[in-house]
Design goal:
It is built from 4 helices and 5 strands; from the N terminus they run E-E-E-H-E-H-E-H-H. By secondary structure, the chain is α/β, with parallel strands linked by helices.
């Protein structure tokens, strides 16, 4: 009789389950947050988390992200890694990687995967679409205008790029 040495399939070979993904555009002052639908087809801007500029501010932001992971039952977080146009990592990419290392530590008990993807030009693209929408809807009030909306939109672009 042969032994039954079945091992679980690698994560990439498993079919997608109906679950949401979280997308993050990490900055030193604000973190844009987006969430996918359960079928992982569409990414939508969700909110912006402010990173307090005092000791413990980063930890507060990580707790806020962990709360959103719990609230949306997320199993994967997609994070934009900023690079310059030559594809090189700069100061912001280094800061992002340090933040991600801390976030991984906070999410490991929840068995949440983190994927980093190239985010070049997402903020520029978010700004362009935001300005186009404002131009089409002149006269309407925009409660969530400005930088906060741009960060969440950039996160949605990062996440949508991953979903596509």
């Amino acid at each position: 009789m042969g032994s039954n040495n079945t091992q679980p399939a690698p994560e990439s070979d498993l079919p997608r389950r109906a679950e949401r993904l979280l997308g993050l555009d990490i900055g030193t002052h604000r973190i844009g947050v987006a969430v996918s639908d359960e079928l992982q087809i569409v990414a939508s801007p969700e909110t912006t988390i402010l990173v307090a500029q005092h000791e413990g501010g980063t930890e507060e932001a990580i707790r806020a992200i962990a709360e959103m992971v719990h609230r949306f039952a997320v199993r994967r977080v997609i994070i934009g890694l900023p690079r310059n146009m030559k594809g090189e990592r700069g100061v912001q990419a280094q800061w992002t990687e340090q933040f991600v290392a801390q976030l991984r530590g906070a999410l490991i008990v929840r068995k949440v995967y983190i994927s980093l993807i190239d985010e070049r030009l997402t903020t520029t693209q978010a700004l362009r679409t935001f300005q186009e929408e404002r131009g089409r809807s002149r006269g309407k009030s925009h409660e969530r205008s400005g930088r906060t909306t741009l960060d969440a939109r950039a996160a949605a672009l990062i996440l949508q790029g991953y979903l596509d």
